[in-house]
Amino acid sequence: MSSVVLDPDRELNHRSDELDLNALSAEELEQLAAPYPVRWLYPRKPGEPDRVVYLFAGAGGLEVGIRDVLGHDLDIIGIEINRDASATATAAGLQRIVADVTTLSPFHIALRWTKGLIVTAPCQGWTPAGKRAGLNPVNQQIVLDMFISAWEATVGVWEDLECSKALECTDDCDGCHEGWTGPIYGVDEVRAMSSQLTDERLGLIAEIVIWGLALSVQSSHFSWMAMEQSSALPEVIIDGIRGEFRCADEWLDTGFQILDAVTYGLASRRKRNFWLASRYGFIDWRRLTPVREIPTTTAAEALGWPEGIRVNTRGVRKTQGGNCWSADKPAVAITSKIRGWYPEHDPEYRFTLDEAALLNGFRPGYPWTGSRSSACQQIGDVVAPPMGAVVIGALLSRPWEDQLRLYLDEIYRRTTTGAETRSVIIPAEKRTHRCTTTRRRTRLSRFRPRGTAPSVARRTGSPSRGAAGRLAFTSDSSSPTSATGTRSRGRATVRASAPRSSYARYWSSKQAGTGRPASSCPPSAKDSSTGGRPSTCEAATETSSKPTPGGRDALYNRPEKKEGAMNTEVETEYGTVTVRRVEPDGVPENQRAWTASYEVTGPRIKGLMHIQPQFRRDSDGFELLPSKVEVFMASGRYSTRRAQFTVNGVKLDETRLLHINGPEDAKRFSFFRETDNFRRSELSDAGQARARAGLRAVLQAHYSDLLLVHDHAAALAEARSRYRHAATLRELEAKIAEAEELEQAIEGLRTRLGLLGDLDLFAAAQRPAEPEEPERPVAPVGELETAPETGEVPVAELRAGDRVCVVGNNTLGRTVRREGVLLADPKMVIAQDWGQRVKKWRLYVDDEPGAEPARYNSLTLWPDVMVERLDAPVLELATAA
Predict the structure, then answer these.
(1) Which strand (E) or helix (H) includes residue 76?
(2) pTM of the entire structure?
(3) Residue 715: in which H helix or E strand, if any?
(4) What value, to the nearest 5°, has the Cα angle with vertex 837 and ends 833 and 841?
(5) In this structure, which long-range contacts are made by residues 35-44, counting pairs with CB atoms below 8 Å and at least 24 apart in sequence?
(6) What is the pLDDT, as a whole number, of residue 502?
(7) With contact defined as beta carbons under 8 Å apart, do 294 and 263 qualify?
(8) Average pLDDT, whole number, for the chain?
(9) Which of 85, 373, 459, 588 sits at 20 to 30 Å (Cα–Cα) from 701?
């Protein structure tokens, strides 16, 4: 047996040097890996799924979505404290660790090969269904303090320590330090701050910051995160989470987006806030939006009920908000209270577990474990499987729409499964086998037959909503020329023998090394860090009439998008202006790859305009990408572009606007009305203002699509490849030469400084020794030593031993006042302040005898703060001999 002390929570820097896994026995490996499997101690082998830690995993809805809907294989280990929920997930074939998340360390040695992190912390403190303790400003401030402290408990603080060896310092000197200190205290101290909250469950949201930062520090394999939370999560908490990971420079893209499960075909409303983060790449937020609209599923359709049924959710209570919802619409959000819901016409009927889970997107027969109340609580808390497939599929760039449609058809429309499990509710007076007592009848109602089976017409796919939708889709998909709608990023535009532009061919060639289909269009835009609506792909590309199985381009022949599906509404001083992206058919074929066309409609405003990138042609320097755009608002008799803009019923004359940097540039331009002769006539002042407002609205919609702006710039640069490639090489060579010259100059200055230092030492050694000063007489008894100046002084003038009164921030970010002796000279450090790295003074103040500088007696102050120096007790000097 090995004598190695097994400590799975040691720092990773020492594990590889101190621990040889091959030298450990099976029992020692299990002890070291606990509570995780032993295989997680070793790197992932080729072909094995990525490893993911899932905090607050519950009964496994999100994992079911990944496994059964998305069809993606991940090695997910869920951590859940509820034993019934863990037993349900285990029975469903999922992996669970029954433990309190706050008792586990994110620095465990088995987590060093983790790829992703999922967190679905309890949301009762934030949701309107709870007590809304999360709206308390005091609680919000404590949670934000936990975020900041989590950084110091995982990354540490930035410090610049000067060497105490002075001139003997070398390059590898141990006394010098510059950088992050590493954890200055444990994560348990951060978690302990939740005891100050009125609802300690609010503090569980800090686990996303604690685990996310800890896994980032521990391993470079960790690359993505996802979190599900209430849609009522306050904006200040969202900004706090986003700010912490923006400080971590490696996380390139983070953002929140609110999604409603009804949009994705679920039979119940379930609006949730999803947070996604990618460490080494950007997230295509448009993947969260389906290419084609997914039909809405009502509760009656999902359960096989006839029309006209209403469900009571409050019993006999007459509280505000109503007691019923119609089953002819999607159900309201499913909560644990569904155990008491019943149809209005039959108060004795109760939802079965399969029916409740079906409304949340589960297949019938999911192995719910525990009492009925416990199972309903699990159903109410779980993440709907369709939403798990959508969110993780978009985050990992995997196609989900085809799979989701098939899954919904299976669980709701019953195209392949037996229909005998779906029952139709009939009035209570027509039922048979009724029990004699109300208590027994209520308890047994969910186990006995209820009514008749669905009609033969529904089972065989005869005219019904689901069947009609399927038949229509089949007929559309059978013809390669049945649809002419556009597709967003990564999807092809279906058009019969559509010619491919030069940029389309360029982009197809570039995709060969990226894993995307060769027919994919260039990336378009998202309009903010929190995602955006899908945009039109300008470059039409050829596609096969048959979709690739399982690929993102599987939905080729979709019907054209509805009007307004890609609209952007912009508020102006004249009202709401609607800007709609359209195909750039009004421009020459060789310019469409870098042209954005917009239809604008608003109060007395209507038109079609085109926007193209424009390279700067002055002598200010070379541009790798265009910084300006060119706008065509109205075409003339000899124009090669078709555009027209109408204001107050007046058409504009040929209008071409150059050198536009942004929406605010619209105020620089004047507009002229269209005339029958060659004379130009300006619009009225009101018309000018309204035309500028329309132009500003279009520019605002265009510039919000940053990826589109970049793609068009790249397409224009590619079209001018010869000139721009040569100019780019020349510019880069000039920059490299300039950098080399600067390095040589700096090296020369360093050499001169070293010589000057050596000369100073040599001159000091050659100087004659100065005569020793006579000893100073000892002060007589009663004569006091001169005390330092008191009052407000800059921090730089303070020295160790001064007695001061300081008002600053402690390590938790709280403002405190402390009076005592300065234990060390002040030093300038890089500290965290609301998620930002700032320079501050660090002081150590304490009154305890023998105290030493430590975290509990440290304070940070802003550089320009004045500190009050107090009268220190002055000791009498010894009498002369």
Answers:
(1) strand 75-80
(2) 0.51
(3) helix 706-719
(4) 75
(5) 35/97, 35/99, 35/104, 36/77, 36/97, 36/108, 36/110, 36/111, 37/77, 37/110, 40/77, 40/110, 40/111, 40/113, 41/109, 41/110, 42/113, 43/113, 44/113, 44/115
(6) 33
(7) yes
(8) 75
(9) 588
